[in-house]
Amino acid sequence: MRGMHFIVGFAIALFVLSGAFAGVQDDERLTLVFVGDAGTNASGAPVSSEGGYKRGRLLSVPDALETISPWLQGDIVFANLESVVTDRNNMSPRDKMFVFHMHPEGARDLLRAGLNAFSTANNHALDFGGIGAGETLRNMEALSQEGLLAWPGLSVDRQSGLQPQIALVRDWQIAMSAWGIGGGGLPAREGRAGTLRSDDDLAALVDELGRTDADLRILSVHYGQEFVPSPTRTEIQRLRGRANLGDELSIVAGHHAHVARGMEISNKHLIIYGLGNFLHFGTQNMARFDICRDFGLLVKVGLRGDAAGDLTVDTVEAVPLKNMHVKTEPMMGEDASLRLQVLSYLGSKLDNEGEAARGLRFAQQENDAGLWCAEGASDARCVDWVAPPLANGRIGRLIEAACSRDIRRGNL
Question: Which of 35, 43, 297, 386 to pair with 278, CA 20 to 30 A apart?
């Protein structure tokens, strides 16, 4: 059965790559894909090599990824892995409302689908204590023999946690670091692990990332209030400041809120304030919420190298996602169009000329993804691209009303 899933997924990938993505990849370009929270089991459910549980029913992870896997094609394909990874069912969970652990085969299924980098710094990394975190770290190291490029976040001591993980992609060196709320436990006892979680930890992590010799720096940040689509002014200032990691390009990828947030270019640095959910059997059906909260994001970033070898952002694609709780799918047609207008609205709230920050607006393409193009972009799809106007009239009022609602839950 797994072989059949591979054949079907490969055929779909060939179709997509020969169509919507044709001509995008060459020796002077890098392609990065970012998605949000991932996990392949429900809260408190036993782990199984056959899949993950959702309301007592065992689901196939390859089935859950089948529709979205053609989009998981890139040099770096990055997700926030919001679960302990272990084959053990005899560990004691922490006293929390939600606790997640998933089988290593589930992580392997994510890897087979195209994901090749995980953040392991988040508020569920220690759901089974330092022992569970040590299990995750051990399984990530094992998956590095199968194509996993990086898993920043978990470590055995503070110093190793501060060191970025490096992936060499052709001639470019990519440094990745991760920080998240709710971690802790460093230094860890033998066989255990922990994460960096304090503001001082974040400052030190950023300093170390900024000093690292790299062509591209990626900072994963698990932060903020759940279900709130707009970051606070304090959060904007924090992430906008963190994005400027030296002269080389940097990308900040934010997650935790379970909802999509806007994106911006700050100087030449890209900040994705919130990716929402990707695929997590332990999350609720976000379709129960309004149009500002009922979708996740897949963000595809096209980078180009100049004559000096420096990388800059050429294009950003946004794919609104649905059904992230059971089987992730891209939104299409009018559903995609409306969420892209929401995303552009959220981006407009990030505009700040004095701080050289521009929120991204997305024009819907034939494949229903949204596209943003940098000035002078070399991608052929950008020849006639113009930033779309913000929605007005009834649609504009609908978006503003939805995004202004006060729906929130405290950090877990």
Answer: 386
